[in-house]
Amino acid sequence: MSSTVISNIASLVTNDPSLGDRSPLGLIRDAALVIDGDRVSWTGESSKAPATDNRVDADGRAVIPGFVDSHSHLVFAGDRTEEFNARMSGRGYSAGGIRTTVAATRTATDAELETNLVRHLTEALRQGTTTLETKSGYGLTVHDEERALRIASAHTDEVTYLGAHIVSPDYADDPAAYVALVTGEMLDACAPHARWIDVFCEKGAFDGDQARAILTAGREKGLHPRVHANQLSYGPGVQLAVELGAASADHCTHLTDADVDALANSDTVATLLPGAEFSTRAEWPDARRLLDAGVTVALSTDCNPGSSYTSSVPFCIALAVRDMRMTPDEALWSATAGGARALRRTDVGRLSPGAYADLAFLDAPSHVHLAYRPGVPLVDEVWRRGRRVA
Ligand code: NIG
Ligand code: FE
């Protein structure tokens, strides 16, 4: 197994609080990192780095764990430029726009869907994302949901069945029959390709009772729950996520004190998706309130053609710091270790011995520049499983 030392790193974020400055980021200055095969085997001060076969000079750049984007919707066709344009001229966002993408996705071939997925995965990778969750939810038939998950699972391990995105237009007059399909034949076809099950618990999508039935059925088939919760309005999503032991409640834009308390006393991560509030001109989720209550917060893109068409985690970090009152350290942690928690992963989102060597070099001396220099393409080099990939 070949080993490589990366030395002369101005600042290294390990996300291991037993290392470096002992903060949650486990920051080591003037650092080095050793990779054996696909894993990190050593981190410490550059001057103490062991000799290895290969040497890479970071030349004073910062190194951070690759981003863990724990929420995206990348199996789709078409785009929604007109809808975005109308919104920026004053129209509001509603879940109804999902139907436009459903229509385009159903008519696309498998090859077209896969090409579009790979295009967006490559775009995300170039911006530092080395682990990415993605969902179905733009098919809403047994055939179209199954093929979305099959295509996604060829490219990522983190695949989520979201047949319950909205009630299929084919069942507009009989939502109960659609829930029966989602929990029956569609679930049977989809479960073999997915790790997670998700539901959009919202007015105009699925209510609390429907969402509970869907997530419970998924759990019986071995899928782990996560929930689109409290995005557009107050509602039962967050409490349901906690009740069912979901890995994550995603969006969390409209929360009561009881919702915040429930999250704080649970293992459910609150995943914040500021790209959605940006692109829908909605109010920001209050990250500070969640963090101060002791909730574990993840930060992800929600990349999708309707509510948040960005694959850029650095952009989301800048928004979170500027508009959601997160510190640059908290935002970086949430976009790496937080995303890993939201996917119940311990092998990614950190750069301490034993973790996968998934990392990004920044063209900057510190991760703080991700928020300090918004919009600047600072991700310089990306490594996944110990090898340079972008
Ligand atoms: O997470 N909220 C539900 N689903 C997506 C939006 C999907 C769309 O508008 O196409 C979201 O924001
Ligand atoms: Fe989403």
TrEMBL record:
InterPro entries with a match to the protein in the record: Amidohydro-rel (IPR006680), HutI (IPR005920), Metal-dep_hydrolase_composite (IPR011059), Metal_Hydrolase (IPR032466)
Residues bound to 4-imidazolone-5-propanoate: R80, Y138, H165, Q231, S307
UniProt-annotated binding residues for Fe(3+): H71, H73, H228, D302
UniProt pathway annotation: Amino-acid degradation; L-histidine degradation into L-glutamate; N-formimidoyl-L-glutamate from L-histidine: step 3/3
Cofactor(s) essential for the protein: Zn(2+); Fe(3+)
Location in the cell: Cytoplasm
E.C. number: 3.5.2.7
Sorted UniProt keywords: Cytoplasm, Histidine metabolism, Hydrolase, Iron, Metal-binding, Zinc
Chief subcellular location: cytoplasm
Zinc as UniProt keyword: yes
Class of enzymatic activity (EC top level): hydrolase
Domain Amidohydrolase-related: 63-366
The protein's name in its UniProt record: Imidazolonepropionase
UniProt gene name: hutI
